[in-house]
Amino acid sequence: MPKNFEKVINGLKIDPIIFTFKFDCECTGECCHYGVYTDSFEAERILNNKDKILANFDSTQCTDASKWFEKPEEDKEFESGIAIGTEVINGKCTFLDNKGLCTLQKMANDESEYKWKYKPLYCILFPLIIDEGVLTIDTGHIKRLKTCNPIFDTKKTIFESCTEELLHLLGKRGYSQLKKYSEEYLVNKKNN
Ligand code: SF4
Ligand code: SF4
C-alpha cells in the first residue's frame, strides 16, 4: 500500500480511489459471511450485552458466548493494539441471523438507539477500510463476494454510496473536507 497520499483528514490519509471506484450494493449480508476483526474494546462491549444478544438470536446462531470470538491478536491497526475476530459459525459471522441481518444492528434498531451503537467499526465501514492509516477500499473482500456490489453498470462511486459511513467515521466537518477534496480531485483528473 503506497503511503504518499497528499490529503489527510482527522489524521487519516485519503486514497482518492474512493472518488472513482463504482459500488452500489443491494444488501444480502454476504459481506458478513467471513466474520470481521473487532478492536478488543468492541468485543468487550458486545460481550457486556450478551443477554440482550442471546434474546435476539435465532436457531442458526451459537448460544455459547465463549465461542463468539477468535483468540486476540496483536495488531497496531487497532486503537487498543489488540484485534479479535468474530467466529464464522454455520457459514456466517456468529452475529448474522438467518435473514442476513446483523443481530447487533437489529438490536440497536429495536431499542430505537443509533443503529451502529453496538457494531464494530470495520463492519460499519465496509466496503471502506482503514489500512495502515489510509482510508481506502477493501478490494480484496469485494472481489470474493458474489452478490455484494452486483450492479455492474452503476454510476455510483463508493464515496457516493457510503455517505453515512463516511459521516460516522469523519464527522460533519471531516466529511465536508472530504467532499471538497473529492470535487478538487475530480476537476484535476478531468483537466489532466
Ligand atoms: S456491503 Fe454488505 S452490508 Fe453493505 S450493502 Fe453490501 S452486503 Fe449489505
Ligand atoms: S458483527 Fe454484524 S455486521 Fe459485523 S460481520 Fe458480524 S454480522 Fe456482519
How would you describe this protein?
With 192 residues, the chain is of the alpha+beta class. It has 2 domains: 1-25 and 127-192, no CATH class; 31-124, no CATH class. 35% of the residues lie in helices and 14% in strands. The protein has 7 helices and 9 strands, in the order E-E-E-H-H-E-E-E-E-H-H-E-E-H-H-H. It has helices at residues 40-48, 50-56, 103-110, 121-125, 139-144, 158-161, 163-191, and strands at residues 8-9, 12-14, 37-39, 73-74, 82-85, 88-89, 92-93, 128-131, 134-137. The strands form 3 sheets. A 4-stranded mixed sheet has the order 1-2-9-8. A 3-stranded antiparallel sheet has the order 3-5-4. Strand 8 (128-131) and strand 9 form a beta hairpin. The longest helix has 29 residues, at 163-191. The two termini are 24 Å apart. The model has no long low-confidence stretch (mean pLDDT 93). Bound molecules: iron/sulfur cluster (SF4) (2 copies). The site of one iron/sulfur cluster has 12 residues, from loops.
Question: How do you describe this structure in short?
Answer:
With 192 residues, this protein is an alpha+beta fold. Helix content is 35%, strand content 14%. It contains 7 helices and 9 strands; from the N terminus they run βββααββββααββααα.
What's the number of domains? 2
| Mean pLDDT across all amino acids | 93
How is the largest sheet built, in terms of strand order? 1-2-9-8
Sketch the major β-sheet.
4 strands, mixed
| Order of helix and strand elements from N to C terminus | EEEHHEEEEHHEEHHH
Span of the ends, CA to CA: 24 Å
Assembly of the depicted chains: single chain
Which ions, cofactors or small ligands are bound in this entry?
Answer: iron/sulfur cluster
Q: What class would the helix/strand composition place it in? A: alpha+beta
How many distinct helices? 7
Taken from the alpha-carbon principal axes, the silhouette is: globular
Radius of gyration: 18 Å
